[in-house]
Amino acid sequence: MLDPMAHSRTARTAAFFDLDKTIIARSSTLAFSRPFYAGGLINRRTVLRSAYAQFVYLLGGADHDQMERMREYLSAMCTGWDVETVKAIVADTLHHIVTPMIHEEAVELIDEHHAAGRDVVIVSSSGAEVVEPIGAMLGADKVIATRMVVADGKYTGEIEEYAYGPYKATAMLALAEAEGYDLENSYAYSDSVTDEPMLAAVGHPFAVNPDKALRRLAVARDWPVLDFSEPVGLAERGRFHEVRRPAMATVAVAGLAAGALLLAARRRARRTEN
Fold first, then answer.
1. What is the structure's pLDDT at 245?
2. How deeply is 215 buried, as exposed, middle or buried, from its count of CB atoms within 10 A (0-12, 13-18, 19+)?
3. pLDDT, tens digit, for every residue of 25-68?
4. Among residues 18, 92, 119, 211, which one is catalytic?
5. One of 20, 92, 119, 191 is an active-site residue; which one?
6. Helix (H) or strand (E) segment spanning residue 221
């Protein structure tokens, strides 16, 4: 697909990948709603609302208004969450939740860019606590993601850096300046028209599984369109990098298991009494 010899010998280049619906088939943040429920972070009603939000996100293109509503919803949902608990849950369920959603074509493309000597950068509006472990698993060199304000180890609900729309391009330009990337010879991949600034920031933009608006834009600007649909096969999943679990992960999972056993015991006791 790519020519490794095309890599510039005089300047560093990079390949910037959107995450949701580009590398993986769904919203990375909403995909963790059930593990967050099991970990006591959200209730059943919130799980159902997350499932509905996922459905809306997949059904239509994620336009500006939808992304703003999702941002507000997720900010409200995570207010008060313990940061280390979130990291532990994500680390422990990462391969089970995310790996089946990864597009094989995206993984091959990441490998080809690395072979060509380019850094791979994941650029996502999802939270860093979710995006960074996924990036590590995929072997990404850098991650640009939304970052929440933390106070006393808990999320306040406020957003420190929102990696969405034009802010993605701003972050890419800052990273390019810091790392010495030649953006004119770099690549970018996304599914959404809201990422037009991100795609326009590089010399080689690609629309991946594009929404209707981005598909029209890609045709108008003669941007290549890629369709990813093949999930990573079971035999191929061993090539993903192991992500180091936080020390708290083992404790958190043990606590969840103990809680589940205690709840089951109480239910059995109540049935016996009746």
1. 55
2. middle
3. 877 777 777 787 788 877 666 655 555 455 444 445 555 666 66
4. 18
5. 20
6. helix 212-221
Is 141 marked active-site? no
Percent of the chain with pLDDT over 90: 45
**Better-scored residue on pLDDT, 183 or 266:** 183
Three-state DSSP class for residue 15: strand
The answer to whether 153 touches 171, Cβ cutoff 8 Å, is no
CA dihedral 124, 134, 101, 46 (to 10 degrees): -70
Token pair in block for residue 272: 């016996």
Q: How far is CA 155 from CA 74, 126, 147, in A?
A: 11, 15, 10
Burial environment of residue 262 by CB neighbours within 10 A (0 to 12, 13 to 18, 19 or more): exposed
Interval 216-232: pLDDT, tens? 999 999 999 999 988 87
Asked if the model's pLDDT at residue 144 lies above 60, the reply is yes
12-229 placed in CATH 3.40.50.720: no
- The answer for 139, left when phi > 0, alpha when psi is -120 to 50, beta otherwise, is left
Residues in Cβ contact with 141 at an 8 Å cutoff, skipping those fewer than 6 apart: 14, 119, 120, 121
For the chain, give every domain's residue range: 12-229, 244-274
* Residue 227 appears among annotated catalytic residues: no
